[in-house]
Amino acid sequence: MKKFFGTDGIRGKTGDYPVTPDFFVKLGYAAGLVLTKNIKENKKPSVVIGKDTRISGYMLESSLEAGFSSAGVDVYLTGPIPTPAIAFLTQSLKADIGIMITASHNPYEDNGIKLFSSKGTKLSDEVESEIEGMIESKIKCVEPSKLGKARRLDNARAKYIEFCLKTFPKEVNLKKYKIVLDCAHGATYQVAPEIFKILGANIVLINNEPDGLNINFQAGSTHPEFLIDHVKSHNADLGIAFDGDGDRVIMVSDQGELVDGDQILYLIMDYYHNQNKLKGGVVGTLMTNLAFEEKCKLLEVPFERTNVGDRYVSEMLRKKSWHMGGENSGHIVLLNHHSTGDGIISSLQVISALLEKNKKISEALKEMPMYPQVLINIPLVNKIDIDSTFIQEIILIAKEMMNGLGRVLIRTSGTQPLLRIMTEGPNKELTEKAANFLVKKIKSIS
Question: Does residue 362 carry a catalytic annotation?
Answer without folding.
Answer: no
